[in-house]
């Protein structure tokens, strides 16, 4: 739907596939699945508002969590249901078809959507009741449903909206079935017997079929006949005429009845039905369009308005194909729009000529004027050509376009061609009979009159012939009503007829080729043949008058009544009667005819009379007169014709059919009977009755007023210097487009390269896999000897073990996995010197042979030996054997001695390597940024140098243009003034003094075009600089700081965990220092320089020192909220010592260890067991927090990296969009401006060669200087 709205917004046609998909979706949502959708969202509303265990409306114990959306649920449900209601209303308004047809017996066409809307309302209320109080008040639910379906059944049967009996039956059957089911369930509820409802519901389906069918037939039998229902509402009247609408057997008579019903009961559906009836049954699309156009589809009644819109659009398209009247209306409408644009062009052209000669010319104003000029010129050409292609006999359009080409655009060849076609069309038209109506003709007059209530009778459009025929000026025509130019009493009769026609028309033709008189500007009548049709368009209803003047008749006429009273007459009527007055209306003809009385005259009979009887017989004039009867709107009127010309009188007697036809040439007039034209001549006469010798003709073959002025004596072309300047400027701007694009491309590519490099380094620095594995390896090594030593003490001292066998197995498995991971991930930390311990024999270890022996090996082999010896010792202990002293010595000395220390040292060195790598990353980032900025600076410098060269070329072009205007200024201005006065009815403005001042004070043009371009392109580089600053000081700096402190956080947590294991080991060893199984007694030949107590104090001091790491703000920022809670605040479901977080728990444990070491007493075994239990719990929790710290800090840095990627991608896209939306259109507009200047050069006459040569020499001299 959003795609469709976008297509409509940009005036694009929606593809058929999209329309089909939308129809299917709307039908599914608003019709097929309307009830399920309503139920679903009512359930969401209910169970989001209050917590429930199960959805009560379903029997299968559906959990309410599936439909619960929390506080957002009710809002979502209400909004969705409201949107569904609105969409359903629009669907019902747009989907139903109101046309009556008999093509299909199962058609779903209907007169109104009211029944469907009422059904949707019933369904919606039922859905609400089902979900909200069906279970709480079942009886009320059934009663309300019963009443609603009863109303729906009555409404469906009473109005039977569908034209198809089958569709009416189906819809009524469904509603009756629902009504009966509600009734059956209510009966069962009251009788407390569900079997009754089931039996009735099953058997009732068959019984309802004939009941519903006969109910519909009964309703149709009660429909009133047409004449009895004509005063009823349209809903009832439509039932009476539905058969006639479908068959069309009453033809136009049905329109009369429907008009009468509409007068009594105003209902726009009546007019809509009439429109479709006229189109489908009477095949009169124009009449249907006229009917529908009398209604405006404004307001909120979408059910009627959409049908009106659809009907009008359909009929307009059908009418336009066949209706010459509608096409004629389009011609005048298009011509008026084109003339308005023609006038705007002349005014802008006039303004441009003045602006370019001013001293302080504004370049932006000149550019806007050039753009407007050329765009309007192209549009005007296109519009005139379109009009002439569709209406080739349109003389007005040919005249306007021809003179526009000839005198304004200096295209005299094409201008002469179109002007020559005017006289050609006139000659061709005069060779054939004018015939009916509403076709174009050289002498035919047209006027389009408004039928709108506010502007009723106003003349909307007219052609030149209409103005010339009546002699009115265009200013007068704008303020003249059509009824003012129809002589009384015809005007009143005609106005009443039109008003009645709009209401009760059965045809769109008011009258066709009827003799009629119109009043000219002096108040005399002029004779013509008039046709009038009603036409509808998108602007409303109007009337088109086609007027054929009856010319070259040597006769005079008067409009009289039966008593001879002169209502109006022609200009020379009084003179023909020998009366020395101008106007004699209001007098009787008998005053001038002697003994003749008008009532004695027979219609169409000729009579001879003498005038001036008081003079001698020689001076008396013999007149022949005839009285003609004309019928206008069923009213009879009489015209008295007089003539003193024998040839004219003979034509009356020979062929009466020629009486109302114009002659092909002017009459031979002499004396007082000479007929003068009542029309005023325009300042430029444009019609020529002679056919040109050729289509193009020669200039002297044109009428005098059409010869082009001195400014257009020859076609204007670009000279060599002008052409070169424009080509060079276009080339510079094209290269500027490429340079600007390359600059942006370099900016994007450099940023992508920097981003890829930074991302790879960040991902590597952020992984810390080796650091984690090495720390966990140190922890597992220390745990292995702690557990095995506990097993050993238990066996030797017969005491309880503090650790379980499964914990030992987990540690051994961890050692195996970590040993494998260190080898597999070796490449990730091979850059660090500390990695050598994995493969090189750099770690010292001790073996107990006869005496302790020092050897060297790599970390992998030592770990393997630890695993083997630990498994061996554990196996011996499980067998209650104690012959494992050598293996125990290896484990104790190496897991808590040199090998272990070397591993911990490697952990510190790896941490330093990571920190150095981060610092190196920052340095490399700086170098990359400097390189990118340097490249951008070079690009901007190149653009600067390149744009500096454009001033010369562009200033040359503008100066050439100024010279052209300066040379031909007065000639062009005169042409424009003449056109504005003669064709656009503008008053003459005398500004010769102003023009002379501009002409004298004109100075050369000089602009800093390069500065304008550089200022605009500096925006791009300012954005780039801001971009780099944000990236460097916001994103990269934040990532660098977090990368720096992440390994510190991870290594500190791991080392605190390892140190806790160490202090636990030596605390327990201190307790048995005086026993036979103490380390100094087991291995007297290998004594440590420090005692267990001293080592414990050293570890304690180190743990205390690590506290400051956790107080660092940067470390704190790396932690997630959950991790902060675990470390600093509380841990649920844990022992009391650790409830306040691992930070305080470790402080408690080390204090406990130091207390045990320093109390100088043998602690109870239970105290030691409690201490070990707390340490085990602490280690388990720290294992979680360690993984959480690693994951959360990594995710935090990754989120920063993703933010950097998104920001960089957005900025790169912004730069591309900036180029596509701003810089490319900017440069393209400048190129288009140059091309438009080329077109402007063509319509401005070029100066002489001498002037251009001097200007070129002066430019070369300036450039040399």
From TrEMBL:
<protein>
    <recommendedName>
        <fullName>PAS domain-containing protein</fullName>
    </recommendedName>
</protein>
<feature type="transmembrane region" description="Helical">
    <location>
        <begin position="1204"/>
        <end position="1225"/>
    </location>
</feature>
<feature type="transmembrane region" description="Helical">
    <location>
        <begin position="195"/>
        <end position="216"/>
    </location>
</feature>
<keyword id="KW-0472">Membrane</keyword>
<dbReference type="InterPro" id="IPR052994">
    <property type="entry name" value="Tiny_macrocysts_regulators"/>
</dbReference>
<keyword id="KW-1133">Transmembrane helix</keyword>
<keyword id="KW-0812">Transmembrane</keyword>
<feature type="transmembrane region" description="Helical">
    <location>
        <begin position="141"/>
        <end position="160"/>
    </location>
</feature>
<feature type="transmembrane region" description="Helical">
    <location>
        <begin position="927"/>
        <end position="948"/>
    </location>
</feature>
<feature type="transmembrane region" description="Helical">
    <location>
        <begin position="172"/>
        <end position="189"/>
    </location>
</feature>
<feature type="transmembrane region" description="Helical">
    <location>
        <begin position="75"/>
        <end position="96"/>
    </location>
</feature>
<feature type="transmembrane region" description="Helical">
    <location>
        <begin position="1013"/>
        <end position="1036"/>
    </location>
</feature>
<feature type="transmembrane region" description="Helical">
    <location>
        <begin position="738"/>
        <end position="758"/>
    </location>
</feature>
<feature type="transmembrane region" description="Helical">
    <location>
        <begin position="21"/>
        <end position="45"/>
    </location>
</feature>
